[in-house]
Amino acid sequence: MNRIDAHEAITKAHHEEWARVVASLTRRFGDLDIAEEAAAEAFATAVQRWPADGVPPNPGAWLTTTANHRAIDRIRRESKRDDKHKEAQMVYDDDPPEPVGAIDDDRLRLIFTCCHPALAMETRVALTLRMVAGLTMPEIARAFLVAESAMGQRITRAKAKIKAARIPYRVPSAEDLPARVSGVLAVLFLVFNEGYLATGPGTDPVRHELTAEAIRLARLIRVLLPDDGEVAGLLALMLLTEARRPARVSAGGELVPLTEQDRGAWDADLIAEGHRLVRERLAAAAAGVAPGRYQILAAINAVHTSARDIRDTDWSQVLALYDQLVRLDPSPIVALNRAIAVAELDGPEVALAIVDRLAEALAGYHAYHATRADLLRRLGRSRESRAAYDRAIELAGNTAETAHLTRRRDQLR
Prior knowledge:
Blueprint: H1 3-29, H2 32-53, H3 59-77, H4 81-94, H5 106-114, H6 121-131, H7 137-144, H8 148-164, H9 177-196, H10 208-224, H11 229-242, H12 268-286, H13 293-306, H14 315-328, H15 332-346, H16 348-356, H17 366-378, H18 382-395, H19 399-410
Region (Disordered): 78-97
Domain DUF6596: 180-280
Organism: Microbispora bryophytorum subsp. camponoti
């Protein structure tokens, strides 16, 4: 086997097995630091050995076994070995037996551990992106629009707090689930977004293993909480977004915006499933149950995926839904997305005035500059549009998106 084949196998194994390895070690040793370090060492060993020895028949089992050996070696090296064994044992002693029929999935347990309410919301999300999704520090920092060093410190403190507070490694009890699920949904949403439009410059533009993992875990949580509207809403949002993935990137590796996508390439089964979930939530809303953020976002995507052609899009309905969403989530990113709908109804000049008011809040966000560039282009302000495209290209971390923005900029007169 050549080094290129081995490298591809290691990359694939990291995408598919990282969460399993970390979760398995966390369950055994009760320590996130040990689990993460041992998993990283196992993958480093694979980089050294697989090109020469060949890829093992079961890469996941090989990585888990190697990581276990590395974890045991580390514990033996520690001066307080007995204390560490005691800490690990206490995690298991405190855990009550799982009820009959409970979901037994180490990765789901790991998510709820990382999303414990003792941690700040952003810390929960960041820690889970690292421990469960295996994202690198630069990728997580980009997702939060913060410095890599600050993100590293945040994750280190979070792991220390989990250890100090002896946060148990288990799926919460039925009565605790509703209060704990919002943090988990935020995690899954960011994991999905990172997969749908990857930020890392060395990664594939679309990382299907991340979107698939986010959808898989959302389905598991829906089994746990079948009546939770936001769980259903997030799952519907993911399905309707994932349905468009086959048309998302061109054969030449360029991002294809929604307005230019081949709608015949969309996944009809995923759209049908997503629409069913949206209809269920609409029925609940009609009965007086107010929809949450994910349900509204799913409804917006349902409007887009219901149109056979971009010209058939019901932009009035999209704007009405964004008006509803901005009352729940008055964030600048929601306002930016709302402005896109405004442009379709009231014209680019009205939308540009809205976008320009977001300049300070979104100065480091590439989509802000890309949206502004497009509105300026439509207004015939080519010089300003080019400058905005230049800034968007500078900030964009996705190769497919960079290619799209570059082409649009170069089309300007």
